[in-house]
Amino acid sequence: MPIACPVDLDTQMLRSEVSKIYSRVATDPDGEFHFHRGPAYAVDFLGYDPTELAALPTECTASFAGIANPHAIGPIVRGETVLDIGCGAGTDLLLAARRAGPGGRAIGVDMTEAMRDRALHSAASAGLTNVEVHQADATALPLPDASVDVVISNGVLNLVPEKEKAFAEIRRVLRPGGRLQLADIVLDAELGEDVRRNIDLWTG
Fold first, then answer.
1. Are the CB atoms for 161 and 14 separated by under 8 Å?
2. What are residue 112's phi and psi, to 5 degrees?
3. Residue 5 lies in a domain
4. Is the pLDDT assigned to residue 3 strictly greater than 80?
5. Which residues contact 199 (CB under 8 A, 6 or more apart)?
6. pTM over cut 0.85
7. Which pairing describes strands 148-154 and 81-85: parallel, antiparallel, or unpaired?
8. What pLDDT digit, counting tens, does each position of 122-134 carry?
9. What is the domain count for the chain?
10. Which pLDDT does position 1 carry in this prediction?
């Protein structure tokens, strides 16, 4: 099954549309969107711990728009360095930071300035000093080789047109023996060319 977009798809337009949508999620999480959001959704549908989410700033969890729970795949161990690709407002990122503890690090990467700013503000509000957030693309991670113990991501890689580059970057930054805890959308049938060229269907 192809894991890349059609070669003539306008990937810059695609990135622009994705950025616009998720910037709105950051600034207006209660607005009109075609996907679920918020802490109640995370608890009721995705199995997040309500006590853990209640301990995070509401500005963070209100803009949560994941599709599953990467933390359910395996525990984050104290002292680990965790990278969250497409961290959004920071729900999974801040959970990882709490679990990694003061001796660990939680690094977020998001393509939108609004989400980056919200994640940084949420980390400061939560008193977490082991968090950093970069505005960057999944295909060009701003981290050194072999610098991360765990990569998490939640409903983001399906939005990336050059998936081979994204997975190559994940492999590059993971340390030997590191792990990927990926929550995302997987298809069991190949999509037609007309569907794969429809930018509206790519954007969430």
1. yes
2. -105, 135
3. no
4. no
5. 9, 10, 13, 14, 17
6. yes
7. parallel
8. 999 999 999 999 9
9. 1
10. 36
